[in-house]
Amino acid sequence: MARMRREEVFSPDEIAIVHVMNRVVRRCFLMGDDPVTGKNYNHRKVQMEILFERFAGLFGIDLLDFSVLSNHFHADLRSRPDIVRNWSDSEVAQDSRTRTQCNGTRTRTRKGRDDSLDIRS
User: Fold this and answer.
1) CB count, 10 Å around CB of 4?
2) Average pLDDT, the chain
């Protein structure tokens, strides 16, 4: 049986608080010491924090809390339909272009500042 669509679970007009979790595959490590390669990936915590905060503004959600572990992360998110409802069509179009043109090195945040970030390592 197929899962229910998100629009059937969450009303787009109501504020929802959700816990999300994502796990890596193929024995990859987000943080900590990788026993296979011997590399340390602790520098990624700052990168993940910047990305969480950046995309929260672009997608109209509040980042309540998050935790990045060696091979997965958890995030508590709150949808903000009250804020999204006030966005103009041009704001949504601009943010959409920002998301699709992001090459991992530079994007515009909703606050208007540029944050440089290299996420390729």
Assistant:
1) 9
2) 76
